[in-house]
Amino acid sequence: MKAAPGAQLPVKDVFGRDGFIARLWRALETNSVRMEAERRVGKTSILHKMAAEPLPGWDPVSLDLEQVHSAAEFAEMVCENVHQRLVGWKKQGKRLLHFLGLLGGAEVGPIKFPPKKDRSENYWKTLLTTTIEDLVEQQAASDKRVVFLFDEMPWMLAAIAKREGEQTAMEVLDTLRTLRQSATTGQGFRMVLCGSIGLHHILGSLRQQGYKNEPVNDMTLVEVPPLEPSVAAGLAAGLLEGDGVAADEAAPSLIADRTGGYPYYVQWVVYELRLDGQPANADNIDRVMKKLLTAPHDPCDIRHFRSRIDGYYPKAEKFVLAVLDHAARASAPLSQAELINVAKSAGDTDDEQIRELLRLMALDHYLGRDTDGRYTFRNTLLRQWWILDRGLN
């Protein structure tokens, strides 16, 4: 096992996620899953491992939706992958092939989609629906269970809203929910929906345009946590050994502590030590961490957590920054009342608006909230960077 921060890891090197993945498979037995994950926590590696090592009887279809910009592109991508599965099972999707045949597409052989001028008004919706209906019917006959692993679904929805309008983005969400709830397809249609942008931001934007539905409240919500300290230390130890980096006995635990258990940062620290040809001891680990937190070129793009605030919280940036500055300085958990007063001191006078901001900041992994309703700066590594970058020390 070698450190390769940012690279797609070999499946065998996806470390410490077996228990979490087993939980996902158990959830999928009865329901689709919405997987929430912060950047750098390893969600894509989890999806790759699920696709490469499915449980017996499952057939994952892994789709990266970041480059999909229209509802038709999405429906056609799903259709192509379903068609490949059906061919492999020696089955045919009679509904979707008949529908495409009516529009001038091929009814036999490779899938051929009609040009835009020949598409019906509800082309993408009919294509997606007939595709899933055929899939559910044929997978039951073939004793298979397909699960769609939809990575970066929020990016796709944002792109569709921008190019085709919010109404179309709403209809994509509603169509997927209808397929999950349908008496015909609901028991056989499974999906894992995830992305590095919180879906709640996309839904909030759509609701400003009049969207009233709750399109994912039927899905099981699962959050990808950082690695537990002992597991992160095990990852660090394996990387140090694989990269041939001499290490003090305490080095793996120190790396785990400094990085907060985020696999990407564990990888990055070991990678830097290997490039520098330096042993893993307290002094060198601290030196590498200082580089991660203070280097002008921002090697791990931590500034993203600051730059996205303007887009995530339009017209509320000043209040969000005030709350985060206060939380970063705090040595103990903070009550909601204290943070409301902090936001008010920055000019926000609406208590309910502040409570909603605090809720969103927790969803976006800036703040953590304990069982007593008190808040902390959630990510210890990000907190260190925030203090340095904002000059709060």
Write a structural description:
The chain has helices at 18-28, 43-52, 71-88, 94-102, 123-142, 153-164, 166-181, 199-207, 229-242, 251-259, 263-276, 282-294, 304-307, 309-312, 317-329, 336-345, 351-363, 380-389; strands at 33-36, 58-64, 145-151, 190-195, 220-223, 367-369, 375-377. The chain is an alpha/beta fold. It folds into 3 domains: 17-223, P-loop containing nucleotide triphosphate hydrolases (Rossmann fold, 3-Layer(aba) Sandwich), CATH 3.40.50; 230-294, Helicase, Ruva Protein, domain 3 (Orthogonal Bundle), CATH 1.10.8; 304-389, Orthogonal Bundle (Arc Repressor Mutant, subunit A), CATH 1.10.10. Strands 2-3-4-1-5 form a 5-stranded parallel sheet, sandwiched between helices. The longest helix has 20 residues, at 123-142. The two termini are 38 Å apart. The mean pLDDT is 92.
Summary of the model, kept short:
The chain is α/β, with parallel strands linked by helices.
CATH superfamily of the largest domain: P-loop containing nucleotide triphosphate hydrolases
Low-confidence stretches: none
Helix-strand pattern, N to C? Answer: HEHEHHHEHHEHEHHHHHHHHHEEH
What proportion of the residues form beta strands (DSSP E)?
A: 5-15%
Largest sheet: 5 strands, parallel
- Count of DSSP E strands? 7
Distance between the termini: 38 Å
CATH architecture of the largest domain: 3-Layer(aba) Sandwich
**CATH topology of the largest domain, anyone?**
Rossmann fold
Strand neighbour order, sheet with most strands: 2-3-4-1-5
Q: Whole-number average pLDDT?
A: 92
What structural category do the secondary elements indicate?
A: alpha/beta
